[in-house]
Amino acid sequence: MTLRISTAGLHAQGLNALLQRQQQVARTQQELVSGNKLQRAADDPGGMAQSQRLDHALATLDQHGKNAGLLEHRLRSQESALTDVGSHLTRARELAVQANSAALSATDRQSIAAELRSIRAEVLSIANRDDGAGRRLFAGTRDGVAPFADTGGTVSYAGDDGQNRIEVAPDHSLADTDPGSEVFLRVRTGDGVVRGSAAGGNTGSGVLQASAVTDHAAWNGQALRVEFTASNAYRVVDAGGAVLASGAYAANTSISAAGVQLTLTGAPATGDAFVVERAPTRDVFATLQNLADALDAPVGSPSERARRDNAVGAAISDLGSAQNHMLALRGGTGTRLAALDSAGDARSAGEVSLAQTLSQLRDVDYAEAASRLALQLTAMEAAQKTMLRVQTLSLFDQL
């Protein structure tokens, strides 16, 4: 059997070989120029798919880093705001202690009340502070609205109790700034555990100096009421009216019952009462407002003076608890900032690992590629010479 190859076939075969060599050279040259050896998915489908997954993972880490930067800015803004509120509350408590002195005149107390109202306005302004980008710090998840508004001395809240969570690393999210309801509205009063107060209808000059839990095992959280059956006699009853203790009263005497102790001064009148209960929550704006109102109220009788002193004494305790509340929130903010630093370290380690893997998969080994290019150029040159030799062949050369 004789195999015949036409001149046209030889030309076509040589041309195809030359074109393939040119494509190989061009591909290698493109690798050297771009530094990327994965030019087409057809060259390495598995490698291309893996590199795309790695690119996506790196882009996700980059977004997490941007999220962390924004969250850090907002948390540091919250920390600054809480520090400012704490400073104002410290000043308010100093004023309350100053106002508790019998040596002050009515004018002096009115001046203190005016400063307290100014402090209240400053705290309200801080509560509506934003992060510099138009988003409020203390509006919960509704961070595009002004959360607090003062209407006739009563502060209302337009935010919500929600808290955004920001993803700062794979499978790791952190809470955004605290909602204003938690920061400014639900603040424990008294000593944070119990709060004592004088009944509103008291007519004597009795003043509650202190109230505290002395035996947590004996106190079950119930409210207790000290009632004066005479100016020098009292009884302690629970919420159901059961008498828990009774005795004779003298000024500066501590009254104890069911694990709770109260210290009173002055001369209560028959029918006066004092209540100690689990410390309720109240917004700081009301605490400051009530203290200012108590200092502005005219005092013309011993009972009115006792009413004012009871209000000031209660406010001193309430402001102390509010200070502790702000400190606790600052502590929580600091914990989240520390967690952000840890997340940043984890992201950096992840980025390095992914980048190394991606580099091994996609980056060109320039020494190998240059050697390969030289070999391909040699092969293409040989193909070109072969093509020229084939083109010159003819039967007439045999004549």
TrEMBL record:
Family matches, as SUPFAM superfamilies: Phase 1 flagellin
Cellular location(s): Bacterial flagellum; Secreted
Keyword Secreted: yes
Keywords: Bacterial flagellum, Cell projection, Cilium, Flagellum, Secreted
TM stretches of this protein: none
Domain Flagellin C-terminal: 319-394
Domain Flagellin N-terminal: 5-141
Pfam families: Flagellin_C, Flagellin_N
Keyword Transferase belongs to the record: no
NCBIfam families noted in UniProt: flagell_flgL
Family according to the record: Belongs to the bacterial flagellin family.
Name of the protein described by the UniProt record: Flagellar hook-associated protein FlgL
